[in-house]
């Protein structure tokens, strides 16, 4: 509490002077507009930013996806209808990306479809296991919690460079392997190992976040529920499956949705760690959007927008299904 | 100091009429208590007077000035909130002076007013503390102090004692009454506790569903409730009710009958009593006297308070009644006692719940 | 298995799956827990520690395989007739005698060596496997000084850019979000739900999905390559509004009403009453804002096209290719970039974790 108060005090001091000017101004507005309209005055700055940088872009993006050329400004772009979508879907055989005119899109989509379930499952299982361990009456709980959490604070670039340094040909991992008498592997050069480490590194970097949420969920389950279960001679496994998991369900659901949304958006770590390679083995959708819209010349904003809209729609559908399921659960 | 007039005040939230129309006149210097069960609109009425809610229709006048559309701060009223609403991050002194600083009062005048209010409420030694460091009673005093420093025309209290324990509540009740005597301001006090209403008010306003059921001095309401609701609400424990009919009307007496009960002769005359009319008889627990005649009541539980006793009894036909007996009752579980109200200590209500006036 | 031991195992499994061990007993589940946590300690912490250690190694030491655990530096000697200092090796001769020689160059499995004590004796060919380098533990802090020296003012510019973006964006976020949260928690007005929903709906829009149009708007505002082009699109965080609103809802409305009766203007109520009382939530929002602004990558990558507007993260990522061979600089830079947050973490750990736990927001 005190750290927060101090922080607020410091932040307050930094804006105290402008506030001195703001107060008469706001008071004048209140006189002018009346109290009833004041909430809108308070909302205007935030709403402006929301409209300008969140809502407006969605509509512009829709226009981008149905217009062509490499021009940035919408008014310079000719409408091409569904051409961008048609390009993305231009395949002879949908099961074989190499028959598509934009094979990278399909490879990125395929990679994402494998990456997300694997990464989310691994993330939740490990985070739950860690949370259960941290919830026990162990020595050094705060310390261990900090250890599992701190990678969340690291920037994606730092995370990627750290692991690159360990996984590189002459890195620490190969050093350990060779000193154990085994053959070193060039981890990031082979598609399968690169994919494995992509999952591993992203889980490593983010699991602490979910662990903290799950830990809070576990701690909110009252102890006497377990004592009651014990009096009801419930077996331990039943206590876990019939008490812990159901009571944790709302938290697990939140964790699941957040994990999926973030997993689909994975970009920074892999961009630095593998660059999407080898080949396109670890290129996910967001990187594809970045490559098409920004890295490649000429920049194909239309294609990037079409791909990103498809991604957005997929996320929307996923969230809607999740909401449906969770609401259905409540009706039971 | 000021008088307050409510003229046909209406308030609705959306389609719900919380207050369908209230007329009320409060005189200068009066201590008025709004009382009623929760949801009766008493708090809303207070907030309308304070200016925290806008009236849907009607007019509020303080003295001769209409304030229905004046902002809360400019009405010259001060409010003590149920939760006290002390600013948690300010010291007591800052809490007391915040409002005065807002109107740019001169510093010496602020400190004069603050120390005067502090002295009046005996919170001088608490001025540099924060609300968190105060007990419930002390917070209560600070909240009142904040109202006092503003020197308002009218004080508004919104259930101010409901967060205190029973003992402290009795103490604060007395203090607020004394404060009213000393300051002489008009005070409006909202509570759901009829004991607070009875003990503090010059005038009680009983509200139900946004409608004023009765206005009057405490004992007037106690002795002459206008209807079943007021009769049941005022007085503790509440009045016993027995449904029945008027069997006979005599000179200075009425005979009340109910199925399974022997007829009871009630001494005292009432207006407009028709033989055969369905009525409800109301008798307060303290008015049921144990006699050798009257209704037989079977004691189920006898509560001994020491100074008095409460007998939970059942009349024939499983009608529960509560009987107050002064001193320590000798009756025990299963005993049958005979009870009847003395002359004039009973109330009859017609089928609409309105009291039949005593002649 | 006897019944007693069965029930005992049962108890400990149940403790493991459900709750904590009772004090004074150390069951096998505790062993398992500690084993898991220690494994976690190694997996989570060792990589970062390894980077820090590596950043203190000399380039020669870094190039070794398998890598050494501690930073070593080879002993060198200046031999007459050679411009560069030569590395010293202990060489076991065929006769089993150890001689200390300086290596001139390595040719396959042979190394050309010379005796520094007696250069006149000429070069000798020695099999590599008989030679072990002479060295001592040495912390190569010059990696850091070299980094600062070689990048010169550039590095400070990156630090300044990152700091500027983080501080300014966080301050704006705090003020703007809390203003909106105040409006959405302490007023009943027509359109409040629409405003709330439209702010929260942006939660559903991944930043990456609207990357192109965001860039377009930034470009239209003339802010490409400008730090404000990274600041403005990020300030209206829906999570911040949501978190602050939820917190402000717990502040009694009566305080606002009391203040209003105390002649406080609406701004004054916000600034003097609500804002100070929201400081715990403000701190959480501030921490998250600082974290994500400091670590931000994709938006700066797209918007900050000029080298002098790079943030630390962009510079670090670009160093990866530029200094691809100069690992010691890259590692030092990585450590430096992570350092501020590591410090922040030590002080604010409790705060951050409770903040996440109570809101599920990052």
From TrEMBL, chain A:
Domain ABC transmembrane type-1: from-to ranges: 109-322
Transmembrane spans: 40-64, 113-134, 146-166, 194-218, 239-261, 301-321
CDD domains, per database record: TM_PBP2
UniProt keyword annotations, A-Z: Cell membrane, Membrane, Transmembrane, Transmembrane helix, Transport
Superkingdom of source: Bacteria
Pfam families: BPD_transp_1 (PF00528)
Record's GO cellular component terms: plasma membrane
GO process annotations (BP): transmembrane transport
UniProt keyword Cell membrane, yes or no: yes
Membrane topology according to the record: Multi-pass membrane protein
Principal subcellular localization: membrane
Record localization: Cell membrane
Family classification: Belongs to the binding-protein-dependent transport system permease family.
Name of the protein in its database record: Sugar ABC transporter permease
Organism: Devosia geojensis
Automatic annotation (TrEMBL), chain B:
GO CC annotations on file: ATP-binding cassette (ABC) transporter complex, substrate-binding subunit-containing; maltose transport complex
Annotated membrane topology: Peripheral membrane protein
Cell location: Cell inner membrane
Domain ABC transporter: 4-234
Keywords: ATP-binding, Cell inner membrane, Cell membrane, Membrane, Nucleotide-binding, Transport
Signal peptide per UniProt: none
Pfam families membership: ABC_tran, OB_MalK
UniProt key word Transport: yes
Family membership noted in the UniProt record: Belongs to the ABC transporter superfamily.
Protein name in the entry: ABC transporter
Organism annotation: Devosia geojensis
